[in-house]
Amino acid sequence: MKLYYFSVAGVFLSLGLSATELPDRQAQLPSVAKDANAQYLTPSELSTIPKGEFGDKVRKGYQLFVNSQQMRDTYVGNELNCVNCHMNAGNKANASPLWGAYLAYPAYRKKNDKVNSYEERIQGCFTYSMNGKAPESGSESLVAISAYSYWLAMSGLMNQFGITGPVPEMTDGELLKGGNREDFPLPDAVTSKLDQKALTMLPGRGFPKLAKPELAYSVQRGETVYQAHCQACHGDDGQGLKMAEVSSLPPLWGPQSYNWGAGMHRVNTAANFIYENMPLGKSMQLTVQQAWDVAAFVNAHERPQDPRFKGHIAETQASFHQHDGFYGKPSPIDASVTLGVEAYPIFPASQ
Hints:
The protein is mainly α. The protein contains 14 helices and 4 strands. Strands 1-2 form a two-stranded antiparallel sheet. Strands 3-4 form a two-stranded antiparallel sheet. It is globular, with a radius of gyration of 20 Å.
């Protein structure tokens, strides 16, 4: 019998409790150190997405992913697009690629203390990173993004193992589950080489875990790094760049950025992402210390409220923020300000 690679204990812990009311157990996002010799999946070219109903869902998922602003005021509440964190249309290794995520779910997440299907994982992105509202289960948007993720993962596996032919189609219900399950259909050529655990831990999945900095991270040093390496794209006020009223480079803090519940507000997660992927188009230009420092600077600013907030900053901080972050703490930039107190609204209407 195959094993699902999530914590069974987590299943029992969640019994009888509402996931939305459960405390964050303060887990760090799963990350592993980068392997310089790793071989990454190479999904097929987008031009090979097939015609027909299944191909239309894959193309729709791609379109929603790269231009998430078409869901503004429906599911998206800020000026971010999914590709701001999952780069190269969700295809770039070490930038939390969709092909790696799809094969890792269903999985237990300490963030909501339950086993999450793939569609539930996507719903979390809308709630936190996009400061919006989760699409309803089984919605067209979730099916489309799941179909695109599956197509990237399966075409990448088929390419790696020399399997020809079209990517096998699946029903909407199967697409939404994700690939980490006993009954997920895989070619024999894949299962003969990779077991389920290996598929959940593909090289390039997530953001590589960065070494600890030599010195404790510093917001003040981070501001200097920001001015030298980030400000040209994100602005001196961190609000990004808009062209013809459309956000082309994302705001990093403030009302139009990710909220206090998003994984990226954690300094370690942001440092992992920044070191590997920033500055845009260059990547790995900063030292380890600089990546930690600038991650601290970015996340030391006010942003939209944590959706789990119920009126008490201290309680929210104690329940959900016992990690590398500044929520509920005096601002390192202005000690008279407690971050979170003046947080911006959750899922605001666009102006």
